[in-house]
């Protein structure tokens, strides 16, 4: 009873129980493509953010205050921004494919009622309220939802508005025409589309802060190697959870 | 007053003392203004020799007459050659010699006699009925009557095209662009506050030459004049790419002709021919003379934040913010929230652990 109570309030993996040492096992959670995606995405977002802020508000000037001939500072910053943007896009398209192809931890399906019920329980859990959140070896549903919103929807907005801005000098071209029509969703004119691009960019920063905090917090509370798992792929979990997940995965395959 | 058989543009020109050579020169200039290839000059010549002047009705609604003022400063083609030889301006409040009932009668005549042939030019946005009446009738009813028989509609200026300054927040007169009342006629949007004179005459020249509307972009503006951003054609662009910016209006950078980006130039979000055709016969344009672009051809330019600062607009509102400052503040707030959450987590963890210890011992 006391163990159950502790679990339901705060200690999802039963850190405090002395039984845990004999039941622990390793489980392969993040496959190599997922880890590569994650770190490429980190690099792309950091580079895009720094170069993006420079483009929006050039905080340093070229070192040679002479004719334009001698420097190409903004030019290079823009090149790097565009290069990182293409990397980001390709990377994200791959991850979308991996939602379909990857293992059970790479998947997410928000079109289930249980997804939203579990999300509600998870929200209560993070607000330190009584809840029925279960322990997740992969992502909990609230985390999954945050990826759909920030990495999914946010990226789509950034990509569409970004490519509009990229092709803006050649609106008569095929891609220019395509993205200018798509830009009508974001208000149609250049200023509105640019505003979307600026504002959603800061959404990533908010996401990044929360995401990194949550990862450290999980590592700290569950002692399951969350932080190292994004490098090695393995988490240390209780055998009973691993077995349960294994059964689920079997069920996934047969279904 | 109205001739039954209209003379062609060429005949009108000869009658006014043009030589054949002058006429051909005018046609060549026109072709260049319209963005046609030199080879297509003969099309312009042919059109001017065979087409008669086009009757034009120029309505002025919620406007400052700035568009008319810009129009009469056209240098190639010269405004007088457009007005006297290419079009037959039947109604214009600024330029007509006649006034009052005489003028209103002239318009009624044209609407009847040239139904389906005349070009309707509109300057200014449409307000609620009580705010603008001409000859005792509301702007909306005048516009709707004039549109009925029009061959096509040219919307001169940002007010007619987007609503413009009369429609700026809080929009006291409920100003709306004319496109709201025109559903079944082609409309050419020629935004700008005012548009460049040569762009205005160029659009008319295109209509006379080809008898149809020019190719329009996804927002309804003629591609020939609105396909390029000012930023991409700017004479200061090299300084932007180099990373050399004027920091204030009176610093060394401004003197050197550095990029005005940090002074809030909105050239990067503005589509117009200013940087290519320039103003006053190709003399200069705002950025060249040291003033950041205010983006007057763009929709809602008056509400896109104060001039001379870089802003971003919160979608669906009129509110503009500095995205870097607000973004940093929001990220800072998130960090603070995370710190509080971590603190609470630590306290709860400690409590759980100590209660378990007590339970065990």
According to DSSP, the number of beta strands of chain B is 9
The helix/strand class of chain A is mainly alpha
CATH architecture of the largest domain in chain B: 3-Layer(aba) Sandwich
N-to-C order of helices and strands of chain A? HHEHHHHHHHEH
Shape of chain A: elongated
Number of helices of chain A: 10
The greatest inter-chain interface is formed by: A-B, 55 and 56 residues
Number of domains of chain A: 1
**Helix percentage range of chain A:** 55-70%
- Rounded average pLDDT of chain A: 85
The Rg value of chain B, from CA coordinates, equals 27 Å
What is the 3D shape of chain B?
Answer: elongated
Secondary-structure-derived class of chain B: alpha/beta
Any idea what the CATH superfamily of the largest domain in chain B is called?
Answer: NADH:ubiquinone oxidoreductase-like, 20kDa subunit
N-to-C span of chain A: 35 Å
Gyration radius from CA atoms of chain A, angstroms: 22 Å
The main sheet of chain B orders its strands as 2-1-3-6-7
Largest sheet of chain B: 5 strands, parallel
Distance between the termini of chain B: 113 Å
| CATH C-level of the largest domain in chain B | Alpha Beta
Describe, in plain words, how this protein is organized in 3D.
The complex is a heterodimer of chains A (255) and B (361). By secondary structure, chain A is mainly α. Chain A has a single domain, classed as Fumarate Reductase Cytochrome B subunit (Up-down Bundle). Helix content of chain A is 67%, strand content 4%. Chain A has ten helices and two strands. Chain A has helices spanning 2-9, 20-23, 32-56, 73-101, 113-126, 141-167, 174-182, 190-222, 226-232, 239-254, and strands at 24-28, 234-238. In chain A, α3 (32-56) packs across α8. The longest helix of chain A has 33 residues, at 190-222. Residues 1-8 of chain A have low confidence and may be disordered. Chain B is an alpha/beta fold. Chain B has three domains: 55-226, Rossmann fold (3-Layer(aba) Sandwich); 228-321, Cytochrome-c3 Hydrogenase, Chain A, domain 2 (Irregular); 325-353. Chain B has helices spanning 9-15, 20-33, 41-50, 66-71, 79-86, 100-113, 139-148, 157-162, 197-210, 223-226, 230-233, 237-242, 252-256, 274-277, 323-360; strands at 54-60, 87-92, 119-123, 133-134, 137-138, 152-156, 187-190, 312-313, 320-321. In chain B, the strands form three sheets. Chain B has a five-stranded parallel β-sheet with strand order 2-1-3-6-7, sandwiched between helices. In chain B, strands 4-5 form a two-stranded antiparallel sheet. In chain B, strands 8-9 form a two-stranded antiparallel sheet. In chain B, α2 crosses α3 (41-50). The mean pLDDT of chain B is 89. At the A-B interface, α1, α4, α7 and α8 of A face α12, α13, β8 and α15 of B.
């Amino acid at each position: 009873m006391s163990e159950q109570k502790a679990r339901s309030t705060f200690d999802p993996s039963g850190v405090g129980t002395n039984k845990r040492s004999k039941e622990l096992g390793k489980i392969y959670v993040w496959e190599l493509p997922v880890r590569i995606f994650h770190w490429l995405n980190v690099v792309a977002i950091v580079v895009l953010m720094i170069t993006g802020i420079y483009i929006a508000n050039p905080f340093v000037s070229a070192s040679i205050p002479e004719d334009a001939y001698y420097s190409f500072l903004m030019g290079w910053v823009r090149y790097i921004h565009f290069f990182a943007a293409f990397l980001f896009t390709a990377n994200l398209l791959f991850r979308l494919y991996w939602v379909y192809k990857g293992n059970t931890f790479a998947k997410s399906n928000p079109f289930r009622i249980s997804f939203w019920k579990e999300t509600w329980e998870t929200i209560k859990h993070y607000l330190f309220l009584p809840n029925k959140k279960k322990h997740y070896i992969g992502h909990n549903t609230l985390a999954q939802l945050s990826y759909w919103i920030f990495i999914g929807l946010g990226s789509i907005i950034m990509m569409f508005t970004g490519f509009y801005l990229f092709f803006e000098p050649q609106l008569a071209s095929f891609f220019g025409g395509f993205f200018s029509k798509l830009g009508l969703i974001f208000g149609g004119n250049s200023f509105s589309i640019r505003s979307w691009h600026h504002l959603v960019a800061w959404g990533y920063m908010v996401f990044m802060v929360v995401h990194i905090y949550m990862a450290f917090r999980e590592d700290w509370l569950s002692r399951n190697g969350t932080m190292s798992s994004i490098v090695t792929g393995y988490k240390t979990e209780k055998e009973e959870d691993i077995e349960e997940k294994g059964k689920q995965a079997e069920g996934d395959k047969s279904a | 007053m109205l001739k039954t058989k209209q003379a062609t543009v060429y005949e009108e020109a000869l009658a006014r003392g043009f030589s054949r050579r002058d006429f051909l020169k005018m046609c060549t200039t026109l072709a260049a203004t319209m963005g046609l290839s030199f080879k297509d000059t003969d099309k312009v010549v042919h059109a001017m020799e065979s087409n008669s002047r086009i009757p034009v009705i120029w309505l002025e609604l919620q406007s400052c007459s700035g568009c008319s003022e810009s129009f009469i400063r056209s240098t190639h083609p010269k405004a007088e050659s457009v007005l006297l030889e290419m079009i037959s301006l039947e109604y214009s409040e600024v330029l007509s010699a006649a006034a009052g009932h005489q003028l209103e009668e002239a318009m009624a005549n044209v609407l009847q006699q040239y139904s389906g042939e005349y070009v309707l030019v509109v300057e200014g946005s449409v307000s609620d009925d009580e705010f603008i009446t001409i000859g005792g009738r509301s702007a909306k009813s005048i516009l709707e009557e004039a549109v009925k028989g029009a061959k096509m509609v040219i919307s001169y200026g940002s007010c007619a095209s987007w609503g413009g300054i009369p429609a700026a927040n809080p929009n006291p007169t409920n100003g709306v662009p004319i496109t709201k009342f025109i559903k079944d006629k082609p409309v050419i949007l020629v935004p700008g506050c005012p548009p460049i004179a040569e762009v205005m005459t160029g659009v008319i020249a295109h209509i006379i030459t080809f008898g149809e509307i020019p190719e329009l972009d996804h927002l309804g503006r003629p591609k020939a004049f609105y396909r390029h951003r000012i930023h991409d054609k700017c004479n200061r662009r090299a300084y932007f790419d180099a990373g050399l910016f004027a920091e204030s209006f009176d610093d060394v950078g401004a003197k050197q002709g550095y990029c005005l980006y940090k002074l809030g130039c909105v050239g990067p979000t503005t589509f117009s021919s200013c940087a290519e055709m320039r103003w006053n016969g190709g003399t200069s344009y705002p950025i060249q003379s040291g003033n950041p672009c205010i983006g007057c051809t763009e929709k809602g330019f008056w509400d896109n934040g104060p001039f001379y600062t870089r802003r971003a607009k919160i979608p669906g509102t009129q509110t503009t913010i500095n995205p870097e400052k607000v973004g940093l503040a929001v990220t800072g707030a998130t960090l603070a929230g995370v710190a509080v959450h971590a603190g609470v987590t630590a306290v709860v963890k400690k409590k759980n652990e100590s209660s378990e210890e007590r339970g065990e011992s």
